[in-house]
């Protein structure tokens, strides 16, 4: 009987060690979609982030989680996510606690990608000015690593959707020289990441959107704090 017990104990121990050595899917880096208030559809483009994570896994040497997560800015696990993604078509509204939490996260090495999905521009600019009242959104230089870390974008942010017919702009906020906020304005990368049947974007536009997304994710990992 004791031999049977010891044998089972050894099996259980080996299994526990094996499980401990196998990283949980959520322990792998992923993209965290910001759940905000104000009426905007923070959940827009539901297939975009899973598709982008799949492409990152296929095209780079980075092991990533198979799915994104949803996070509120006041969640205690916010620092676990190197890439915050904020999008939508309507109003973005942050509480004072969320403003402080986002400021602390970004000053601590975090990265926020705000993706203009047509309709959030004025509210995003208002809220990010609350987060960093002494900083301004400026053009990200074309020689910045975000435009060349994996794929080359010599002309800067690609234009995916028409919107107001204005050129796409990659705007950023730099903290002590580090790009902490990237605002893809008049581009709509998320639409280009969605399933091909959703917006029926030409394959070459979807490819440009995906390539830019790969760059943004890899930059976020490389520029953030050690994990």
What does this structure look like?
- The chain is an alpha/beta fold and 227 residues long.
- The radius of gyration is 20 Å and the shape is globular.
- 37% of the residues lie in helices and 14% in strands.
- The protein contains seven helices and seven strands.
- The chain has a seven-stranded mixed sheet with strand order 2-1-3-4-7-6-5.
- It has one domain: Rossmann fold (3-Layer(aba) Sandwich), CATH 3.40.50.
- Helix 3 (96-107) links the parallel strand 3 (83-86) and strand 4 (112-115).
Topology:
Blueprint: H1 2-21, E1 31-34, H2 48-59, E2 69-71, E3 83-86, H3 96-107, E4 112-115, H4 121-131, E5 138-139, E6 169-175, E7 178-185, H5 189-193, H6 196-199, H7 203-223
Parallel strand pairs: 1-2, 1-3, 3-4, 4-7
Antiparallel strand pairs: 5-6, 6-7
Q: Which strand order do you get reading across the main beta sheet?
A: 2-1-3-4-7-6-5
- Global outline: globular
Which regions contain 5 or more consecutive residues with pLDDT less than 50? 1-26
| Strand residue percentage | 5-15%
Notable traits:
227 residues, alpha/beta, Rossmann fold, seven-stranded mixed sheet, globular, disordered N terminus
